[in-house]
Amino acid sequence: MKKLTILLLLTFSLFAKERTFTIPVQLQLKLCEQLAQNTNRCENGSTLDYYKHLVLSDDRLLIFLYLNEHTKSYKPTSTAIPVVVNSIGEWRATFGENSISEDIESLHQDPHNNIWVRAIWHLEGLFPALYHSPDAIHWKRTRLPENRDVDCCFESIDEPIFLWNTVQLTFRNLDNTKIKSWATTYKSAMSNTPIWQPVPNSPAMQKEPVDEGSWKVNTSSKEISFSNNLSKLKIVLPIGEKRSKKFYHIQVGAFSKMSSAKIVMKSLKNMPYIPFTKVVVVNGKKYIKLLIGEFTSKRKAKFILNKIKKEHQNNVNIQKAFILTSKL
Which of 44, 108, 135, 261 is most buried when burial is the number of CB atoms within 10 A of its CB? Predict the structure, then answer.
């Protein structure tokens, strides 16, 4: 049956012209309603934009979309919702608890065709998360190993290792001084109470190239397109446009180790804004910046800086703090 379907698609592709589509209107309305929050609404100018995608083994496209209000948000993540489209342009999505609020780092399909999302939550620290789905539509958050003793608030998770009957996860702190791995069976990993066993750290597996199947992917600064070589179907989705806008922070310090940043953070008491860290890479070297506040006005940032310098005259780190300008 599969061979017959492919043969029909090949025959059709010889005579068909490429057809361009985007998300069906009714589905757009449902997605807009699902993702709407406060002023972030489609009727206020927000748009459904592409976030991440994965070509599945059955040649369907899994696409995560989010609602982009085109403004800087204090929350660094945007809730994303999965939709699936096949090679002939049939769309499918479910709603409710199937959205993902963390930043999606990577998508994977294991040897049993289960789909996994590796994500991380940025909020006064780094907190890893993992989701799994048997069909790319219905999603469940994976319960991670407990008592990991890696770092309570600044922890990341490597790309999962999928063997035939085993799922292995490796966690590490930002300094790479603590690295620990756990493993369990597929059946256990997808249950509500997985049983994880500590295992020796494995060497990183070489990442296999992504098989895009019959889909060809092209990206530009404003959109991404998926063209199916067999059915001549083309899907075009917008990519969130980033507006160049200045923001200001109070930088207290920049450190090569997270442990050093955390020591200084403990000395920042009674701040008008909660201090937070931001990891940056400069000339291939990682730094952890310790910042206070996020201001759209340099005048406001200077006012707060002068205020906290007067209130914390004995704090050497505060006295050395300065205004950092960044762009969205």
Answer: 261
Q: Domain 246-327: give its CATH superfamily.
A: Sporulation related repeat (3.30.70.1070)
pTM (predicted TM-score): 0.71
Computed over its alpha carbons, how large is the radius of gyration of the chain? 23
The alpha carbon dihedral of 195, 54, 123, 261 has a sign of positive
Phi, psi of 110 (to 5 degrees): -90, 180
The candidate with the shortest Cα–Cα distance to 145, out of 189, 179, 98, is 189
Task: For 70-139, give the DSSP string.
Answer: SS--SS----EEEEEE-TT--EEE--SS--B-SEEEEEEE-TTS-EEEEEEEESSSEEEEEEEESSSSS-
For tokens 């446009």, the residue is 241
Residues 6+ apart with CB under 8 A from 105: 118, 119, 120
How many residues are there in the chain? 328
Give residue 123's pLDDT band: very low, low, confident or very high (50, 70, 90): low
pLDDT tens digits for range 52-98:
999 999 999 999 999 887 665 444 457 899 999 999 999 999 877 78
Q: Are 170 and 179 in contact (CB under 8 A)?
A: yes
- Give the residue extent of every domain in the chain: 2-238, 246-327
CA distance 115 to 94: 16
- At 40 the three-state DSSP class reads strand
- CA 290 to chain centroid, in Å, comes to 22
Q: Which amino acid is at 249?
A: H
Tokens in use for 171?
């966690």
